[in-house]
């Protein structure tokens, strides 16, 4: 038995995997919709509870990367809500999560651009000090050294935000769009 077979055996202990269709089936039971949805909130549309959203995000790491997630949530009692209403609430909340991730990326991009601006300003300062300060010696070299560091650090921080920080969020949003089927709700 190879390593790949062992991994598939471990994954199948936690998820129902259809290896031919590349689908991971997940079934979860709750007593009532209020266990996962906050109906008494301050928003127009009820919000999914944080624990439920976290559970959904963890599923992405449990299922193999190439598999779509097919999630079914069943309830013992619908508390007077219909299935269509629950699916609509869930769909709107998941779109809200994508919007939140997009806003985080925008905020991080703004910070990265600000850091680039700081780096450019310090580089201009370096140019002026290097060309217009007519002194030599240890103080001159120390000032140039410090300014050089101050010019370099913001660019590295901006590159980290652009390429590392945003790539994680882009990957999460991409994974959600490609691998997530609408959640199915049903009465048990």
Question: How would you explain this protein's 3D organization?
Answer:
This protein has 188 residues and is an alpha/beta fold. It has one domain (3-187). Helix content is 62%, strand content 14%. It is built from 4 helices and 6 strands. It has helices at residues 3-14, 50-62, 83-132, 138-179, and strands at residues 16-18, 23-30, 37-38, 47-48, 68-75, 184-187. The strands form 2 sheets. It has a 4-stranded mixed β-sheet with strand order 1-2-5-6. Helix 3 runs antiparallel to helix 4 (138-179). The model has no long low-confidence stretch (mean pLDDT 86).
In a few lines, what is going on in this structure?
The protein has 188 residues and is of the alpha/beta class.
Shape: elongated
| Quaternary structure classification | single chain
Number of strands: 6
**Mean pLDDT score, rounded?**
86
- Give a short account of the largest sheet: 4 strands, mixed
Strand ordering within the main sheet: 1-2-5-6
Structural class: alpha/beta
User: Low-confidence runs (pLDDT<50, min 5 residues)?
Assistant: none
**How helix-rich are the residues, as a percent range?**
55-70%
In angstroms, what separates the terminal alpha carbons?
A: 38 Å
Radius of gyration equals 26 Å
How big a fraction of the residues is strand? 5-15%
The tally of helices reads: 4
Give helix and strand order, one letter per element, not per position: HEEEEHEHHE
Number of domains: 1
């Amino acid at each position: 038995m190879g390593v790949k077979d062992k991994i598939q055996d471990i994954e199948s202990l936690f998820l129902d995997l259809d290896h031919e269709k590349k689908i991971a089936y997940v079934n979860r039971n709750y007593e009532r919709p209020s266990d996962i949805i906050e109906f008494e909130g301050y928003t127009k549309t009820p919000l999914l509870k944080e624990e439920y959203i976290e559970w959904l995000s963890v599923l992405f790491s449990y299922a193999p990367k190439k598999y779509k997630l097919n999630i079914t949530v069943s309830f013992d009692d619908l508390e007077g809500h219909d299935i269509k209403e629950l699916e609509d609430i869930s769909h709107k909340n998941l779109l809200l999560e994508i919007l939140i991730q997009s806003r985080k990326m925008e905020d991080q991009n703004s910070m990265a651009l600000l850091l680039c601006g700081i780096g450019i300003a310090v580089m201009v300062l370096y140019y002026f000090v290097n060309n217009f300060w007519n002194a030599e010696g240890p103080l001159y070299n120390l000032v140039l050294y410090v300014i050089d560091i101050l010019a370099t650090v913001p660019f590295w921080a901006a590159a980290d935000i652009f390429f590392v920080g945003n790539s994680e969020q882009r990957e999460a949003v991409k994974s959600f769009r490609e691998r997530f089927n609408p959640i199915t709700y049903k009465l048990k």
